[in-house]
Amino acid sequence: MGIESFRELLLRKTVDNTNLQTLVKYARDEILVEKVLESLEKMARAGHKGDAANFAVRDFGLDMDPQMEPHMIRDALGHHVSRYKNALKSNNQSLANQHAKQTFRLMNIADTTQKHSHGKLSVDYVSTQPWERNKLLNTYANDHPKVQEGKYKEGDFTTKTKGLNYKGSDFSWLQQAPHESYKKEIKRHGHNNAYPFEHIKVNGKNIHVDDDVDSSTYEHHEFDRHPIMNHFEDSVKHRTPTRDQEYVDAKTKYHDDEPHIDGFFDRHEKLETADPKAYTERGSKPSDPVHESVETPLSLEDEKRAPAKEKAKTNLKNIDLSNVDLGKIPADVLKQLGISTSEDE
């Protein structure tokens, strides 16, 4: 199927959406293809995440209140990212690492459980792997046994990036530009500076990053105490009925017996009362960048190819013809040599 046939198919499928039809109709070929690929990648990632989900993950997704858990997750992400940003401003990398680690866990929970939420939860974020690669730079040498066996090529990285499953304690690599090995991916979304936490979205709304936070110690969010935090990483193979019941009991207690749920909604009610307009606009657009700009962002320009070398041209006039039978040389060649033939006479 050619690109125009594909475009026509998209136009037929988007007949009820005027804005989308306009985008499909007038987008350049390469932009259209990139956007479709980007959407397919997100679908593949969301489809793969949660395939082997345990009981707690499936129950959390199925049983969630669309007006509560997604709201709490988005607020928890904003809480930790805000304090991460404040810690960096205070040159407290250790505290920043703690909040970054919890942010990754929350993103991972949302990414893992969205498949089981039946549309009640969705999370959108920029993959962290291009930035993580800066920390994992060791490559295979030509004499490595795995290279000799043909499993890897010389220059391949020895360690794969983990994304949201990153288990390290140092997150300083988020402050760097993404690694050049991910340039093709970076060109699609354009985030070539430090990692863009501010572009995390939950159910279509950006997280709110508060620049007025001032805290020198680690502060939990109400959602951090949700039992899913202690269950979502358990493998299906090692789950037991007892462990599943522990989650059910803990979830019931979290919703019914602990006061922090009321505290969460009371806090938001006060925010809305204090400034209704500002509260309504929270998440309508990305907050200011979480990180300072890097000195050298990843270049998105294509590498210029060296011009092809011109083939050496033979100067026919310099050829020694003293021992050549001119009768065997084509007339057009003789003409280039400035030698007259009988046909010219």
User: What is the number of helical segments per DSSP (H or I, 4+ residues)?
Assistant: 13
Mean of residue pLDDT values: 85
The proportion of residues forming helix, as a percent range, comes to 40-55%
**Which overall shape is indicated by the principal axes computed on the Cα atoms?**
elongated
Structural class of the secondary elements?
Answer: mainly alpha
Describe the protein's architecture and organization.
- The protein is an all-alpha fold and 345 residues long.
- It folds into two domains: 1-48, no CATH class; 50-281, no CATH class.
- It has 13 helices and three strands.
- The chain has helices at 3-13, 18-26, 29-48, 55-63, 69-89, 93-113, 129-132, 145-148, 183-189, 241-256, 260-274, 276-281, 331-336, and strands spanning 123-124, 201-202, 205-206.
- Strands 1-2-3 form a three-stranded antiparallel β-sheet.
- Strand 2 (201-202) and strand 3 form a beta hairpin.
- Helix 1 (3-13) runs antiparallel to helix 2 (18-26) and helix 5 runs antiparallel to helix 6 (93-113).
- The chain is elongated, with a radius of gyration of 30 Å.
- The two termini are 60 Å apart.
Spell out the key features of this protein:
single chain, 345 residues, mainly alpha, 3-stranded antiparallel beta sheet, 13 helices
Question: In terms of topology, how is this protein built?
Answer:
Layout: H1 3-13, H2 18-26, H3 29-48, H4 55-63, H5 69-89, H6 93-113, E1 123-124, H7 129-132, H8 145-148, H9 183-189, E2 201-202, E3 205-206, H10 241-256, H11 260-274, H12 276-281, H13 331-336
Antiparallel strand pairs: 1-2, 2-3
